[in-house]
Amino acid sequence: MGTLVTLHLPPDSPVADLPWIITIGALDDNEEWEPLVCGPYERPHALALAQAVVADEDLMAVVEPLLPLAGADAIRDEIELARAGHNPDLDAEDFDADDEPRRTTPGRPPAEAEVRAGFARIAAKLTSAGQ
Fold first, then answer.
1. What is the reported pTM?
2. Which of 25, 39, 91, 110 has its CB 3.0 to 4.6 Å from that of 35, i.e. a possible disulfide?
3. Per the domain annotation, does 113 fall within a domain?
């Protein structure tokens, strides 16, 4: 059985509405192959697809938000925030170093038609952002 890693988000987090990507790689450090990055997906689809892939294999899947930044200055700003160790979308009180890893139940893997409909919704969000 593989491992699924993702952010624990509060129920009302705006990060949940971002596009999400899946990075799948070897669970064992002795395996040498480049991880596969796929997406973007809507968060529930990303979680369910990642869980389905790693369920019966020794793989690790990391499901994380994709930041649709439209310019070099926006990217530089995010780099500075990352260097400072600050993520404005996630509050420190949401995390406790003593917390046990949380189990997630992503649900059934979405059908191809559902994923493609999600792609369309993501594209609509990305093209209408800032208008």
1. 0.75
2. 25
3. no
Mean pLDDT to the nearest integer, 85-101 = 50
Output the CA torsion 93→99→101→106 (10° steps).
-40
pLDDT of 98 higher than 60: no
Pairing state between β 36-41 and 3-6: unpaired
62 assigned to some structural domain: yes
C-alpha separations of 79 from 13, 57, 66 in Å: 21, 34, 14
Q: Has residue 27 been placed in a domain? A: yes
CB 68, CB 18: distance < 8 Å = yes
Strand order in the sheet with 36-41: 3-6, 59-65, 20-26, 36-41
> Residue 28, class by beta-carbon neighbours within 10 Å (0-12 exposed, 13-18 middle, 19+ buried)?
exposed
3-state helix, strand, coil in the chain (%, to 5): 35, 20, 45
Residue 45 falls inside a structural domain: yes
The whole-angstrom separation of Cα 22 and Cα 42 is 11
